[in-house]
Amino acid sequence: MNKQRLEALAEGIFAIVMTLLVIEIRVPEIHHIVTNKELSEAVFELTPLFLSYILSFFVLSTFWRAHLYMVSYITKSIDNHVLNINILFFMLIGLIPFSSHLLGSYPNSQFAIIWYGVNISLISLTLYGLRTYLKLTKRFDPEKFYTKDRKYSRIRLLMPLIATLLVIPISFWNTNFAIFIYTFVVVFNFFPGGIYFIENILGLKK
CA-to-CA distance for 3 and 86, rounded, in angstroms? Predict the structure, then answer.
């Protein structure tokens, strides 16, 4: 099967989904001559939506990079099972704009926080499943799949799931802190040096 067609589909889906994130943020409609104060207050009320947009954009960027690395760089060939896992992955990615808008519209709702966490956790598990399948069926290029790459890619894929396991119980105590944990973990996980920093802090680096 043609790997390039899968890559093209992934690029298109991520481009559309990332665009939909900001489309969900509507310009305030004020049906009279508006003052600067009224408009600034109306825009300020959209702050939770903007924050959920930023968080979700980082989430999508992280998953896009992981998928790009996995499919375009280390995968040698694909079969029907790889395609099926990718279809599930794309379906869950397509749900992110809804989950993001739900979180931004109801940031103090435990249900919205849990829904968002379950969405990104399922994406994380699906991508981890793809990684595991490629490894078991030896469809990756072993020369490009270095030991450090295996370790760090595994940690990065499971970080959203770990964050969700932390956030769900925290959301019953403080929803704002729960969202902060999401944001911190996702943004920290996005930057290349984040995992190295955690490894050094925990004394795991050899």
Answer: 12
